[in-house]
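INFO  loader      accepted 1 record
INFO  loader      residues=54
INFO  predictor   begin
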Amino acid sequence: MHSKKENRQHQIRNTPFILLTLSVLLWIAGVATGEPARVLEQASQVCLSCIGIG
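INFO  predictor   done
INFO  writer      dumping tokens
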């Protein structure tokens, strides 16, 4: 039989892996929907308008 302390330590050790997996899945979803290209496009517009070209 496991004590509560052992169960809590096991849960704490799993938390980083769960968060890492969730982060990777969200990153993949963002890349699949074309977000990096959109962010780069917006950044270019902001930079060009800042210097008065765009």
